[in-house]
Design brief:
The complex is a heterodimer. Chain A is built from no helices and 12 strands. Chain A is an all-beta fold. The chains are: A mainly beta, B mainly beta.
């Protein structure tokens, strides 16, 4: 079974300061890991994904995440926060347990990112 | 850029009524999914669908739920007799390939309110 723990339900940073959203995962297989963002009243948009290639993954809007197998972590970072980054962020795992694309994604509970002016 | 679309954006229904939520996945995508997000809770997987049949389903997806691909473009989720606890945001998603590493593209969601 796979699971995801997002360690912070809310993170508040000032505009222009770094962002760190923490995520730990559990999987019996070699997982793929994703970060999705959800702006108010919008759908889920992919920020970035890890699929066993480079451990440092760069995504859209200046976000990046590092896969650390020894720590079972996939933390999301951004050097400088922008007001438009305010949203809900979901860490997501998929390990293909049932084969192919059959398995659904397993979501974390989400981290609400607040940007202070 | 192609995107997944869902209709309606908001559906209000009375308890015990049947509802059908509609999705149009990205053209040429092969796997389709439904998820739900109850207010304040995490997004949960309901069902995956491939080659005109269910591939995998979660414990949530009981006999009250069914999915169908009635034509070459639509993918529907039917709830036979809605309950108050079915109130949630329902998301449809699709992938281009057949691997768990493929990116799932999500629609904007349908907010279902059961009164």
């Amino acid at each position: 079974a796979q699971s995801v723990t997002q360690l912070d339900s809310h993170v508040s940073v000032s505009e222009g300061t770094p962002v760190l959203l923490r995520c730990n995962y559990s999987s019996s297989y070699s997982p793929s890991l994703f970060w999705y963002v959800q702006h108010p009243n919008k759908g889920l948009q992919l920020l970035l994904k890890y699929t066993s290639a480079a451990t440092l993954v760069k995504g859209i809007n200046g976000f990046e995440a590092e896969f650390k197998k020894s720590e079972t972590s996939f933390h999301l970072t951004k050097p400088s926060a922008h007001m438009s980054d305010a949203a809900e962020y979901f860490c997501v795992v998929s390990d293909g347990y049932s084969g192919g694309g059959a398995d659904g994604l397993t979501f974390g509970k989400g981290t609400h990112l607040i940007i202070q002016p | 850029e192609p995107e997944v679309t869902q209709t309606p954006s908001h559906q209000v229904t009375q308890m015990g009524q049947e509802v059908i939520l509609r999705c149009v996945p990205i053209s040429n995508h092969l796997y389709f999914y439904w998820y739900r997000q109850i207010l304040g809770q995490k997004v949960e997987f309901l069902v995956s669908f491939y080659n005109n049949e269910i591939s995998e389903k979660s414990e949530i997806f009981d006999d009250q739920f069914s999915v169908e691909r009635p034509d070459g473009s639509n993918f529907t989720l039917k709830i036979r007799s809605t309950k108050l606890e079915d109130s949630a945001m329902y998301f449809c998603a699709s992938i281009e390939g057949t691997s768990f590493t493929d990116t799932q593209y999500f629609g904007p969601g349908t907010r279902l309110t059961v009164l």
